[in-house]
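Form 7-S
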Amino acid sequence: MSNSILRNILRFIVLVLAQITLFNNIDFLGYINPYPYVLFVLLFPIGDNRALLLFSSFLLGLSIDMFANSGGMHAAACVTVAYLRPWILQSIFGIAYEYNAVKVSSAAYGERLLFLSIMIFTHHLILFSLESFNFSDIIYILKKTLFSGAFTLLLCMLFITLFSFRRK
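Output:
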């Protein structure tokens, strides 16, 4: 197995375990629930197979759903974000994306922040819309998306910064 495959398998396992053991137990003020497991979808290698990304995103969401007893909401949000990922990457990184020269962890700070923000807030909006499934709760959905998304974005930026050091 190549180094990239092992790294992705390890990232999948670590993020699922961290989510179900630590982050699912955080519920601050009823609005802040971090979901850093979405980092797997965001950091998946760009040149790899898109069908593999969609399938592994489904497995990631399904794994979280099984432990959180959430009925497929995480799987739906993960697959949707994985499906939208190429268009968002292309709109942010432009021609560098077409030549597979983009690596999110080593991108410029502004581009990385914009990409993570769009992806995380999209994921959270879908997730909380499916959780509530009631249009009359739009304020609750937006509040939860904003606060949980901001905390998840902070955690993801922190994780990328801490774990993306270069070995010499």
